[in-house]
Structures are given as structure tokens and as C-alpha cells.
Amino acid sequence: MNFTFLSKQKIAQLPKTPGVYALKKGKELLYIGKATNIRERVKNHFPSRSEGERRTNVLRTGQPAYRDYLFIDKVKKIGYIKTNSEIEALILEANLIKKYQPKYNVVWRDDKNYFFVGITTEDFPKVFITHQTKLKIENCKLKIDYVGPFVDGSALKQTLKVLRKVFPYRSCNKIPSRPCLWYQLNRCPAPCLLKSKVAKEINLEEKLKKECQKNAKNLVKILQGKKIQVLKSSKKEMKKAAISQDFEKATKIRDQIWALERIISHAKIFDWLEIDWRRTEEKLKKILKTRKKIKRIEAYDVSNIQGQLATGAMVTFIKGLAEKNFYRRFKIKMGGKPDDIAMIKEVLKRRFKHTEWPYPDLILIDDGIAQLNAAKLAINNYQLIIPIVALAKKENKLFIEGRKKPILLKNLLREIFNLILQLRDEAHRFAITYHKKLRVKDLIK
């Protein structure tokens, strides 16, 4: 499967279909991405041709949006491959990035940023998503097969969610003593049924074992882009069952084939993610009492031991999803006694000196009102109006700029509760990781 290339002046000729696109300079592929609508997605990489919009874009970010400023001026040609669905675009993107390793798909430089689907090789395989490919299952020597890497973890989760309707699989860590909700929803073959007396009497074990293994095998093939192979194999199995007059089995396989073709062709994975964020954004705007769009959120944390080897961290979420190529680390320059408030102030001052980095629509600071006020003073120096919230650690109280009383996090809607905690925890993890690296370097001097 090869890209069709056009000059970058011919963006208007790109298709409006799902698929994968590539940005190219000479013979070098600079970047590969997926899209629901290839033409519209590629347009977003380039500055607006409207002078008014262009000026606003440059004033706000200093560069085209997101990571584009790293390579967009180098792009000479744009390639595309159309797919029949968004699921196929997700899978094709993973395979092409793995094959070509484009320079500016920076997310691939750190194994922890990949997403893999793991499948245990046992009688009743378990399917799960992970960042690692060297996992050890407790008290077990099972081999684990991995499919990936994938770039977009949220889209991958949605893909597994819809594929599970066609190929039910086990996802529990330990097979329970009784069937769970996944069995009731027909999303798991339920090997837990084998613990009943009736199952032993009707010799159900061998049948369930074959079903679990076949479903896991087909799921792997779909994620590897081998849909046609799965369909051919299933049709062959259906005919064989019909010839042997096992009509119940033949009917089940036929329904599975139809469901797979329908889901692969029509599932709107990326649209679901967009809709989920729009709902969360509206709820967040109500809490902050603002009408302005909230798309980009930055969260900050500092880490130190008695002021020594102090570090600051900035993590960035766009539309509720972590964008790790926008994460930044700061080695705190101020000395003397430990002072978290002064440290967070220093980090923010240094961050906003970088006018080439896109500005956030919301800032989250770790800790209480004092840190919030320090952050406010830091960005006021740059004449920016950006809402700020701070999350106090002990009681999980959310302080909002301009309000006297904090809000208990547990009283917020579930989507906002999860988003705030995810931001806080990710900023803390990133700060701690950098701090530990500096400690190791300091020890081996």
C-alpha cells in the first residue's frame, strides 16, 4: 500500500475520507498521521491563509499549531492513503510509522509513550492495553504476545471496545468464581462458567477454550491489518459448519462476519473522542464560569528534597488527552531554603518566556491558594489572561482563581474529577522522574 503524493500547494485536492497522510521533504518522510477527514486534518498543520487569522495565530503561538513549527516549513509534498474506516486508519498509521519511523513522529522516541495490545498465551487468553512489552504476570510464567505500537491510546481503547462485540474476550486479571457484567453483555466467553457443576457435566471446557483462543487470534490479526484474512478464514469455517449440518455454528459465524464488516466500515472512533471532549469541556466551562473555549490545559508540579536538586515539570493535555511532545522539564535555578511557592513562580516565568510555545487555555497548579496566587503573579508579568486552578493535596480541594471558597473534588462531576486527578498525577509523575534522574547523576559524579 503506497502513498499518493501531491505538492503542498494542492491541499484542496486531498480526499475528504478517513485515512493516513504523510508530510514529505524530498525522499524523506517527516511525519505520518491519521485522520477522519484527510483534507481538513492536513489543513490544520498549515497557518491560515487569512491575514487576520494568520496574525492572530502568530501573536498567540509564534508558530503554527502544536508540534508543527518543528518541521512545517520543510514540507514540500503531502501523501495520502484512503481507508474505508477510522479503525483501518488507526491500524495503518501504526504499521506505517513502525515501518518508516518518520523523524518528527517524536512520540516514538520513548517506549513509555507507545500503546500495545497484550494477549496472554494460555487456555483462556487475557487481552489488555499496556505501555510495556516486558511485563511479568505475578506467580505465572505465561508468554505474552504484543501488537503495536499504537500512537493514540484513546482511539485504541474505543477500537477494542467495538471489536469486542464481534470477538468477545477475557479482560480480568484472575478468572472469578461467577460470571460478571461482561458475560451478561456478551463481551466475554466467560471461562468462569467452568467452575459450575453443570459445565463439567456437559464438557463445556474444550468448547470455551477454542472460542477464547480463536477470538483472541482473530483480534490480533485485525489489529495487524489482516482483516481480509480473518474474513476469508471465517467464511471457510462457516461453509464447513454448514456442510456438516452444524447450522447453529454456521449461523453464529455468519453473524460474526456481518458484524465485523459493518463495524470496520462504519465505526466513528475519532468522532466519539471528539464528542466526549465537547461534553467534558462544557461542564468545565460551567465550573470556571467562562464562555471561552478550553482545549489546551497545562499542569505544573515541582519536586525536591529539602530544596536540593529541585525540578519543575509541565505536562500538556489537548482535548483531554496527554500530548507528551509538549511536556517540558525545568531544573530549578534558585538556591537557598526549600520554597515550593517561589519554585512554581520561577517555572512559570521561564515557561512563558517561550512565546513560540502555544499558550494554554487553563493552568492547573499542584497545591493550594498560595501556589495559585504565585502562578497568577508570574503570568501577569506577560499580560496574559489565563484561568488558573490549584489542587490541594491532602483534602483534594480545588481552588479556583477569583473565588473565596474551594470546591471539594469529590463533589465535582465524574468527568471533571477524573480529568483534574489525571492532570495532577501526570505532572507529579513527570516531575518525580526528572528529579530521580538528577539524583542519580549527582550520586555518580
Can you tell me the CATH superfamily of the largest domain?
UvrC, RNAse H endonuclease domain
Distance between the termini: 51 Å
The portion of residues forming beta strands comes to: 15-25%
The succession of helices and strands, N to C, reads: EEEHHEHEEEHHHHHHHEEEEHEHEEEH
List the uncertain runs: 49-66
Structural class: alpha+beta
Which fold name is given in CATH as the topology of the largest domain? Nucleotidyltransferase, domain 5
Task: Please give a structural write-up.
By secondary structure, the chain is α+β, with helices and mostly antiparallel strands. The chain folds into four domains: 4-109, GIY-YIG endonuclease (3-Layer(aba) Sandwich), CATH 3.40.1440.10; 112-225, no CATH class; 226-267; 276-443, UvrC, RNAse H endonuclease domain (Nucleotidyltransferase, domain 5, 2-Layer Sandwich). The chain is 42% helix and 19% strand. It contains 13 helices and 15 strands. The strands form three sheets. Strands 8, 9, 10, 11, 12, 13, 14 and 15 form an eight-stranded mixed β-sheet that branches. Strands 1-4-2-3 form a four-stranded antiparallel β-sheet. The protein has a three-stranded antiparallel β-sheet with strand order 6-5-7. Strand 14 and strand 15 (407-408) form a beta hairpin. Helix 11 (340-352) packs parallel to helix 12 (369-380). The protein starts with a strand and ends with a helix. Residues 49-66 have low confidence and may be disordered.
